Amino acid sequence: MPPVLPGKTGELHVSQTAPKTAVDDVVQLALVPAIASLSYVFWVVGGMEMIERLAYYGVKAVATLYAKDPISKGGLGVTMTEFGSILTVWALLQSVLPVFTGGLSDRFGYKRTIAASTVIKICGYLIMAALPTFNGFFLGAMVLASGTAVFKPGIQGTLVKATRRENSSMAWGIFYQTVNIGGFLGPLVAGFLRKMEWQYVFLACAGIISINFLMLLLYTEPGKAEREAELALKRAAGKEKSLLTESLEELAKPHVWVYLLIFSGFWFMFNSLFDVLPAHIEEWVDTRDIVSTLFGAGGAQNEVVKFFIVMSKDGSEVLPEGMLNLNAGLIMITCFVFAAISGRMRAITSMVVGTLFASVALFASGASTLGWVSVGAIGIFSVGEMLSSPKFSEYIGNFAPHDKKGMYLGFSQISLAIGWTLEGAVGPRLYDAFASKDLFSRQMLAEKGMGSDDVAKIPQGEAFQKLVDSLHMPAHDVTAMLYAQHNPGLVWIIMGAIGVASALGIWWYGKWVPGVMARQAERG
Fold it and tell me: CB–CB of 504/361 below 8 Å?
């Protein structure tokens, strides 16, 4: 039978000449048959990932707020730039380690590495709780990053082994949906606990991730016998290479490293949503219009409502983690729909469209201080994320050799490493330079006659309140005045432009890689 290649509309057409490659799109099962075809182990690993993400985003969603919160309120009391130094190393460690831990998963088994990662991650959360200082949080973040790096390849490798090409789009979409159930619940827990004590957040996350020990009792590793037989044959033939050698040989293939490099622009944007947008929402976005629309002028009074929306104690505003939780909430509810839509598109097309949607969302994030505009921007970003992020993992999982699925899905973290590391180094610094309310407040206090020594003595994070007190104006009016005098939205124009460049790169890759893979197939 002649090989098939992707058509322009997402359907497949027949080619009489071009060899079939691992990056060709395959006809996907319809919605209901695709869901019905998913195996028992798929749902188990989805549950483990959901629990891990619940704990992880319980910390990640509020980490920026914890870092910026004054020491007098239990936070770290640091600038965004100082927090960025933690993010940079965190991103680098968490994203580069899977290049090597992915090979460990293939060699020693997914179940063992998932269990080891759970122990490591518990230690990270407990360190954060026990050492509420900059250095303590830094150490805890590094341990947490190491545990996450060990966890990911085993989970994603299992997913690839437990699915087929015909149901892979739906599988990755539903997996992403279950992930975001955890991503949705984590900020709710954190938003509730941090109102009492920051340390409660970290202790709760340590307890939550421990549940995965119970999930491991239900887990059966797919392809275990085949993996062990292949390793035994390699050892007997003396062909077993070191993990480092194998990893570098695979990474040297152009279609692998170019793909990882290009998609890093999406991860730059994605992480700015969690690292920088909470600060922007807290400082510049007025969410009172959302509350008044939904609950009237008196705000929300029901404690259950305030918990699930993550509102201030008096119910008059939506907190940043509540706003951001719209992202996980939308994905949690609708990702299977967008997985079906994405399944009707070429993988490259889906990623390009999704990345452009995310770029538009970032442009919109800095365009207004209105809460509903921010809601709209987060919603658009969520659609873009659902069209692009699951496809990224599905695509690399499909072109990975059958005995190196964990390794290649470990490689996928390199793209995250580049994007998140650059964002961690650049994003908070951009924010401090162009959008820091604390900096603008200090400048205005100096303009109003406060001495430079007195301005310098104001603790980090408390300059705005000092300005409000000196002007005898409502805080929201002072915010509007500072916003009008400066241009905080410039940060998001820069962020969005990076996404547009990434989308163009993905489009070019789709034109270039089929030829590369076809030549490799002819030679091999």
Answer: no
Q: What phi and psi values does residue 311 have, to the nearest 5 degrees?
A: -110, 165
DSSP codes, 161-186? HT--GGGHHHHHHHHHHHHHHHHHHH
Please give, one letter per residue, the 3-state secondary structure of 362-418: HHHHCCCCEHHHHHHHHHHHHHHHHHHHHHHHHHHHHHCCCCCHHHHHHHHHHHHHH
pLDDT digits (tens, 9 = 90+) for 207-241: 999 999 998 888 877 766 665 566 666 666 665 55
Return the half-sphere exposure (C-beta side, CA atoms, 13 A cut-off) of residue 202: 23
Alpha-carbon gap, residue 50 to 178, rounded angstroms:
6
Place of tokens 């406060």: 450
Burial bucket for residue 351 (CB in 10 Å: 0-12, 13-18, 19+): buried
Are 363 and 322 contacting, i.e. CB atoms less than 8 angstroms apart? Answer: no
Backbone φ, ψ for residue 62 (5° rounding): -115, 5
Nearest alpha carbon to residue 150 among 424, 415, 413: 413
**Residue in the structure block whose two tokens are 């699915």:** 163
Distance CA(180)–CA(520), nearest Å, equals 37
Calpha distance 362→381 (Å, rounded): 8
CA 475/CA 481 separation, integer angstroms: 10
Token pair for 396: 């690399």
Q: What does the alpha-carbon distance between residue 507 and residue 214 come to, in Å, rounded to a whole number?
A: 43
Is the distance from CB of 460 to CB of 70 less than 8 angstroms?
Answer: yes
pLDDT for res 391: 80
Report the alpha-carbon distance of residue 475 to residue 310 in Å, rounded: 21
What is the tens place of the pLDDT at every residue in 86-100? Answer: 988 888 888 777 766
Q: Which residue ranges form the domains of the chain, and what is each CATH number?
A: 28-218+246-435+489-523 (1.20.1250.20), 437-485 (no CATH)
Contact 319, 66 (CB under 8 A): no
pTM: 0.71
Q: Positive or negative CA dihedral for 295, 296, 302, 306?
A: positive
Compute φ and ψ for 2, nearest 5 degrees: -65, 150
Residue 177 pLDDT: 77
Which residues, including other chains, have CB under 8 Å from residue 63's CB and lie 6 or more apart? 83, 275
The tally of CA atoms less than 13 A away on the side-chain side of residue 184 is: 17
**Largest distance between two CA atoms of the chain:** 82
* HEC readout, 97-163: CHHHHHHHHHHHCHHHHHHHHHHHHHHHHHHHHHCCCHHHHHHHHHHHHHHHHHHHHHHHHHHHHCC
- Specify the range with the lowest mean pLDDT, choosing from 192-196, 319-323, 520-524: 520-524
State the Cα–Cα distance between residues 195 and 189, nearest whole angstrom. Answer: 10
Strand locations in 269-404 (E): none
Question: Does residue 430 contact residue 491 with C-beta atoms inside 8 Å?
Answer: yes
Write down the pLDDT at residue 27. 62
Residue 515 pLDDT exceeds 80: no
Residue 88 token pair:
């940079």
Residue 88 identity? T
